[in-house]
Design a protein that fits this description.
This protein is of the alpha/beta class and 457 residues long. It contains twelve helices and 15 strands. The chain binds guanosine-5'-diphosphate (2 copies). One guanosine-5'-diphosphate binds next to helix 6.
Length: 457
Amino acid sequence: MTLTLAIVGRPNVGKSTLFNRLVGKRLALVDDQPGVTRDLREGEARLGDLRFTVIDTAGLEEATDESLEGRMRKLTERAVDMADVCLFIVDARTGLAPADRVFAEILRRRASHVILAANKAEGAAADAGVIEAWELGLGEPLRISAEHGEGMTDLYAALMPFADAAEAKTAETAPVTDVAVDEDGEAPALPGNDKPLQVAVVGRPNAGKSTLINKILGEDRLLTGPEAGITRDAISLQIDWAGTPMRIFDTAGMRKKAKVQEKLEKMSVSDGLRAVKFAEVVVVLLDAAIPFEQQDLRIADLAEREGRAVVVAINKWDLEDEKSVKLKALREAFEHLLPQLRGAPLVTVSAKTGRGLDRLQAAILKAHDVWNRRVSTARLNRWLTGMVEAHPPPAPQGKRIKLRYMTQAKTRPPGFVVMCSHPEKMPESYNRYLVNGLREAFDMPGTPIRLTLRSQS
Ligand code: GDP
Ligand code: GDP
């Protein structure tokens, strides 16, 4: 199974131009042939050594009875449901149009992965448009020119993790020796709003990942058979966990037990990485007897750097005696070893007995919620004023750094942009002061928070 990328965006932003560049043949029609019926169009794309399927949605200017917005919406939704990743194109020359915001909303609700690109960005005339694209709340826009082939390296880099994963999926699902309960991607697409919450359970071998996943599955009676859960090759499982649809991503622990332990050891980090890239929430599963090993820390740190919500679950709690003493020590170790995940929920569970799984589920939902949180610009700026009054930024060489304005540029995880003078002179400690303050003031524990300082030029 190869990666499928949908190119979406309002008419004339350059979708077909990019499609043609990626596909290399004039498969999609461009705007010099008005009135030609167009709909979703598929081609085999190449970008460097990546091969993927690309869907073009440039079919919007046909005249029918339906409103443009209605057609645009339908077509986009169809493409989004077909794709693993959506490339959302805006026009950096014209700047944002109302339709762009409609798209952003559809994508936010419906797509699991969105890459935002500001096209026609060759030359300085596009600068303002590229910055404006931040306002869509979909992260940092890639600066590209479909016509001139600029920014293709950045596009490559943005697609790379997904292509890796899609390839791995092919490799993993190819030799199906057991009945695969869920073949990822084969299941009928769910309606947009019920998109399953994507969860990765990661941790060292023997932490109890398979036991945990089986327990979750078993209790919902989705599977039967003595060995259900540990004998499948699918890379992910879609489940209904106490009423919440979730997709749980495979890591080494879910894989065939026949594989030698040594190999599992080696695989578990890279498999963990792959799962982390797909997930919204990462559950770092630790063995209470040997918590916070190097490998656990690495994967938790990676999850933070990848911008995922993190829940730490301490497993095998049934084996512990002095529970409250132990818990206190674990909390301290956690704060100390993973300060970047400050406030992330720590849940004790027993995968074996099922104790604590309800709390784990609640923590996953809460973490997901925090990760998606949006704070209004008005509240942010009131808060910023208070923070600056309480503790003004430094004045390097006698010139005080002025924080002028701030806005939340994205969610999943929350990302903020602060407009200020001399952003390059701001010490890291002041950044931390702001990030920790944001966490407290707007109740965003555990989620990575991105803070970008920009000068207003
Ligand atoms: P679509 O409706 O989104 O598929 O847009 P098209 O691909 O048909 O492009 C619309 C117009 O924008 C065409 O005239 C393209 O030549 C032009 N265009 C596309 N990409 C670029 C670009 O990178 N730079 C500039 N300046 N124009 C572009
Ligand atoms: P994985 O490699 O992370 O998938 O770990 P497994 O699920 O295979 O579990 C490793 C071992 O730990 C197995 O012997 C499990 O029975 C045991 N185990 C897993 N969870 C628990 C638990 O909550 N309590 C106890 N006592 N043992 C557990």
